[in-house]
Amino acid sequence: MTYSRFALYDLPADAELARHGAAWLGWDAERGTVCDSPTLPGLDDVTMTPRKYGFHGTLKAPFRLVDGVDLDALKEAVAALALCTAPARCDGLRVATLGRFLALVPVGDASDVSALAARCVTALDCFRAMPSDAEMARRRAVGLTPAQDALLLEWGYPYVLEAFRFHITLTGVLGADALDAWYATVVSFLPALPAPYTVSSLALVGEREDGHFELIERYALTG
Q1: Whether pTM exceeds 0.90
Q2: What does the angle CA 133 – CA 135 – CA 141 come to, to the nearest 5 degrees?
Q3: Could you tell me the CA-to-CA distances from 39 to 25, 36, 124, 189 in Å, in that order?
Q4: Which of 122, 128, 137, 196 is deepest in the core (most CB within 10 A)?
């Protein structure tokens, strides 16, 4: 399989949560397959944007490999990082509204998870090719703060380090009049959310030719 971009994900280790999350979005990133979704009017439309990424929390956003390195080198670096990095934990997860979309977010102190993501961003930055002008323009089109723009210039993505907020996306942008209804729907669909919640591995994923992301390899955090 040839991949155009790579990313580091948290793919939830809780089997029930992972199964329900994949069904909600209609794409199982761990298995690289389409999966059956519940029969809910409008679900296909509201999950269209996050579907190709799968049910995940981003630790290092998608990036192209810099010239001169290959996937094997990236695998070795991720394996080495996982070997010396401890699992990260928060008190649990809850469904929340972030702007105009729904996501699972941490309960309580999430500093351990943020520190893990920061380590992924900085330790593996040497593998990241610079974003194209078109990519930079697309990021800036949403209206970044000066601090976010500085992060974009330095790290290729505006929502890292101090601007990072761990979340597992559940919908695309929703109308204000639809947020409450979809909030109730997703809460009733998902299983009991784990408490505490632990990020126990780094999932290296790749973007396929069809635009969907799938798991390449999972590395246990053993530091």
Answers
A1: yes
A2: 100
A3: 12, 9, 40, 11
A4: 128
Q: At what angle do helices 133-140 and 146-155 cross, to 10 degrees?
A: 160
Match 């949560």 to its residue by tokens.
17
DSSP state of 127: G
Tell me the per-residue pLDDT of 192-202, one tens digit each, with 9 for 90 and over: 999 999 999 99
- Which of 96, 103, 107 lies closest to 53 in space, CA to CA? 103
Query: Identity (one letter) of the amino acid at 138?
Result: R
DSSP conformational letter for 156: S
Beta strands in the chain (DSSP E): 6-10, 27-28, 33-34, 57-63, 88-90, 92-98, 101-107, 168-169, 197-199, 201-207, 213-220
Statement: residue 1 has pLDDT above 90: no
Q: How does pLDDT run across 92-136, given as a tens digit for each residue?
A: 999 999 999 999 999 999 999 999 999 999 999 999 999 999 999
* Average of per-residue pLDDT across 39-52: 96
